[in-house]
Design a protein that fits this description.
single chain; about 450 residues; mainly alpha; disordered N terminus
């Protein structure tokens, strides 16, 4: 592959930092979802669904069509955000595997389903099984590497992604290389790999548009708003009304203080795909605009959407904890969820969420210890450094608080429509000798 080898992300860190600690990250990508780029079904998912449903009605034991329908349903969730498809996928795959335990495609899809539900131990098991059944395939390696990242097995994940890109240098493998580089603070390398993912393209239009959004997110996270806007708009050109691109543009509008435009963009995204992240973004835009009533109503909708995902088997402990900590909703429950998330998916992002939740619950010393875990890979994430700076400020560690808050705002002064102003206010406070940090 061109540019850096994935194994050069942080050679020394891989030997030292990863051995010293256990944990990866995920983002939301935050990603939070853990978008599974490269799931190739067809140019039009609805057509694939209809065709395979018709074939199965004619021949109930058409196992290839059953496998293809399950894969199409997984893609459908990515496109419309309806987690009720997960149960349908599971039922189809169980049928296929009961008929043929050696069905490699079904095992691969089971791995993707486990990733989508944030069941990372199960995903690793299914990925390993799929790799045994399809030793020349690249997609099982993507499942294995994604699970390893979430389970804190960074050295293993880097090796897996290198093997994946060596085997099949395509959209899915380049995107994973990009994320690995991002985790280790190699932002330029992450952008380069994501540009390669964009250039590689995919067989499903949604996958290509999503990759452009991932590239835009990298630009946004580095404070490069103009570059981010161009990439979001190109994704919309390729995929009109694409909700991830609409939400990205909404976040840009909010960062620029254009709250009415941000609200319109977020509402358009939510109308297409009521992902909890989009709903929360809409609530934050209302809050920034001074409309606390609509913000509260929107946050309640986000909770309802999160409950829908949980009802369909998606583990949202980390996401729920972050939402509740950010908005100071039911902090005891948030702290319990953050601790479960850290146990189940010991990533740097889980550590950061735990640190922030502990801080909001008033457990500052424990929060700083969790923050140590969160920043151990050198991830250039403004939110992580903001959380750390706030913790240090309240502990009276003004010098380090000043440094970390400056770092957060230097990385991305627009990192959060609700917390960026707090970062600036607290930085001014610690510069002036006060302890600051009150929230």
């Amino acid at each position: 592959m061109n540019g850096h080898s994935v194994t050069t992300i942080a050679a020394a860190a891989l030997i030292g930092t990863i051995v010293a600690a256990c944990g990866p990250s995920a983002s939301g990508l935050a990603n939070p979802v853990a978008p599974h780029t490269g799931l190739a079904v067809s140019l039009k998912t609805d057509d694939v669904v209809a065709r395979n449903q018709a074939r199965i009605r004619q021949h109930a034991d058409d196992w290839k069509s059953i496998d293809d329908l399950a894969a199409a349903y997984l893609q459908k969730v990515r496109e419309v955000g309806d987690p009720s498809y997960y149960g349908k996928v599971e039922a189809l795959l169980k049928r296929a595997l009961a008929h043929d335990p050696g069905d490699a495609q079904a095992s691969t899809s089971m791995g993707l389903l486990a990733l989508a539900r944030h069941e990372f131990v199960s995903a690793l098991t299914w990925g390993d099984r799929a790799a045994q059944l399809d030793p020349a395939g690249a997609r099982p390696l993507g499942i294995i590497g994604d699970a390893q990242i979430e389970l804190g097995r960074y050295a293993d994940a880097v090796q897996t992604f290198q093997a994946m890109v060596d085997r099949r240098p395509d959209l899915g493998s380049y995107a994973r290389v990009s994320y690995a580089r991002e985790l280790f603070g190699d932002v330029d390398g992450a952008i380069s790999a994501m540009q390669q993912a964009v250039e590689a393209g995919g067989t499903v239009p949604e996958n290509g548009a999503y990759t452009r959004v991932l590239l835009a997110n990298l630009y946004f996270n580095g404070g490069r708003l103009a570059d981010a806007e161009a990439a979001y708009r190109r994704a919309l050109f390729d995929q009109p009304r694409y909700p991830y691109a609409l939400a990205g543009l909404a976040r840009l509008e909010a960062a620029r203080g254009r709250y009415a435009a941000a609200i319109d963009r977020y509402r358009a995204a939510v109308d297409v795909y009521p992902l909890p992240d989009f709903v929360i973004g809409l609530g934050d835009a209302y809050a920034a605009a001074g409309d606390s009533g609509r913000a509260a109503q929107t946050y309640d909708l986000a909770v309802a959407e999160q409950q829908l995902y949980r009802a369909n088997g998606v583990d949202l402990d980390a996401e729920l904890a972050l939402f509740d900590a950010d908005h100071r909703r039911d902090l005891p429950a948030a702290l319990a969820a953050a601790r479960r998330a850290m146990a189940d998916r010991p990533s740097v992002r889980s550590a950061d969420i735990l640190a922030w939740t502990l801080y909001q619950a008033g457990e500052d010393a424990a929060a700083l210890t969790a923050s140590d875990q969160a920043i151990r890979l050198g991830t250039r994430d403004a939110g992580m450094y903001f959380h750390r700076g706030m913790i240090e400020a309240r502990l009276g560690q003004t010098s380090t608080a000043r440094t970390d808050l400056q770092t957060a705002l230097r990385i991305n002064p627009y990192f959060s429509v609700i917390w960026s102003p707090v970062a600036r206010q607290t930085l001014a406070s610690v510069r002036g000798g006060g302890q600051g940090g009150g929230v």
